[in-house]
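Batch job 17 of 40 flagged for manual review because the log was empty.
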Amino acid sequence: MPRLAVEMPVALPPDRCRTFVRDTVRQDALKQAYEKLRGAYDPSSIVEDAPTRIAIFEPVYDIRSKKHSGRGAGWTITYDLAPDTEGGTRVGVTIEYDRRTALMGGGLMKSQAQNEILHRLGALLAYERGWLEAQQPPDTDDPLPASD
């Protein structure tokens, strides 16, 4: 089974990371956007939910049939959340998919999985920034320096 993984530190406690990930699967606004793009909601589901790990299964969407594969083909996105010594979290994101999914992806699954991981980490960084800004005193003009 093909597998891609990367990890990154974030200045969020593990429980905040887990709640953020869990809530993204359940967001009505995201479901509605998905339906506008594809005509049907992607039935993603949480398949593991523990204090330091959360995993989501996403079935393949076949553009020819305009249907989801159900449990037959898809990928699993796993977040491993390891607390660090400074109150933050080392977030590992792994995507695993089966050979059928790779075939349905027309040879582009590795690239799609890489993009998926990077977008998920980018969303966590955006959430981190907002959370850190909310922790700053209200009289601070520029609470956080811009990233290089």
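Reviewer: the log was empty due to a logging misconfiguration, but the result itself is present. Helices lie at 14-26, 28-38, 99-104, 109-135. Unflagging and moving on to job 18.
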